[in-house]
Specification:
Number of strands of chain A: 0
Structural class of chain A: mainly alpha
Largest interface: A-B, 14 and 16 residues
Helix content of chain B: 40-55%
Oligomer: heterodimer
Shape of chain B: elongated
Radius of gyration of chain A: 27 Å
Mean pLDDT of chain B: 87
Low-confidence stretches of chain B: none
Strand content of chain B: 15-25%
Number of helices of chain A: 2
Strand content of chain A: under 5%
Largest sheet of chain B: 2 strands, antiparallel
Strand order of the largest sheet of chain B: 1-2
Distance between the termini of chain A: 49 Å
Radius of gyration of chain B: 22 Å
Number of strands of chain B: 4
Shape of chain A: rod-shaped
Largest sheet of chain A: none
Chain lengths: 101, 146
């Protein structure tokens, strides 16, 4: 009696989603997270500098008090927001670094 | 795009406009009996003219037609001179009296100016309150991320 060996389908290549081409032709390039964060930080820096300039201008009598209040408030809210974003990022990083592999 | 800063800048423009109005009231009250001016003749009442202007935050927003048409800033376009004729008061001792003894005094009604001052001050306070409220709203939203 002859026993036939079992036949398995052969797998050439495992096609995991991660190994696929990230940017196939025709899809617009999405900015990465670091780029987005960098842009946001640049914008925040601009807002903070505008707040500084408004405060200095007010002391020199060049800027109205309500314009200064507006610039400082923008800077304050933006900075608070960015602080929260930073906290979130750091938290996420810590979470990943604590992960057991 | 109309973000939370749009409301802040609208409130700020309101405060600025009311501050200019208080300035004109102060000028009118201080000159309530001024008979000589650079243009000649008695002082004439100042009156600020307000205009609503659409909020334009950035060029991109304008380009994309994303201006919030529902909200307008306020702007003082000009400070006009009240065309009402000056008051004529009989006071022959006054150095600016004419041949008949009449002096031309500014067309300013002091109680009316006081009312304008209170209106401007209250409007300023209202705008400041709006500013404060928006500030609290924005902080509330940001604190949700905690």
């Amino acid at each position: 009696m002859v026993i036939k060996p079992a036949e398995f389908p052969t797998i050439d290549r495992i096609d995991l989603p991660l190994s696929r081409e990230v940017n196939p032709a025709g899809v617009a390039e999405q900015p990465g997270f670091d780029e987005l964060l960098g842009r946001a930080l640049e914008k925040l820096d601009g807002t903070l500098k505008a707040g500084d300039a408004a405060a200095a201008g007010f002391l020199q009598g060049k800027v109205d008090i309500q314009q200064m209040a507006l610039a400082l408030e923008k800077a304050d809210i933006s900075l608070r927001f960015m602080m929260h974003v930073r906290n979130r990022v750091v938290e996420a990083y810590k979470e990943i670094s604590r992960m057991n592999i | 795009m109309a973000d939370i800063f749009t409301a802040l800048s609208i409130a700020s423009s309101g405060m600025q406009a009311q501050r200019i109005r208080v300035n004109t009231v102060a000028s009118n009250l201080a000159n309530a009996s001024t008979t000589r001016t650079e243009e000649g003749g008695p002082y004439r009442r100042l009156d600020p003219v307000f205009r609503a202007v659409p909020v334009e935050e950035s060029f991109e927003a304008t380009l994309e037609g994303m201006i919030d048409e529902q909200s307008n800033k306020v702007e003082v376009v000009e400070v006009s001179r009240d065309p009402a004729p000056p008051r004529k008061v009989y006071d022959p001792q006054h150095p600016d009296a004419d041949a008949e003894g009449y002096v031309l005094l500014p067309n300013i009604n002091v109680p009316e100016e006081m009312v304008n001052m209170i209106t401007a001050s209250r409007s300023y306070a209202a705008c400041a309150n709006v500013f404060e409220t928006i500030k609290q709203m924005a902080r509330g939203a940001v604190d949700l991320l905690k």
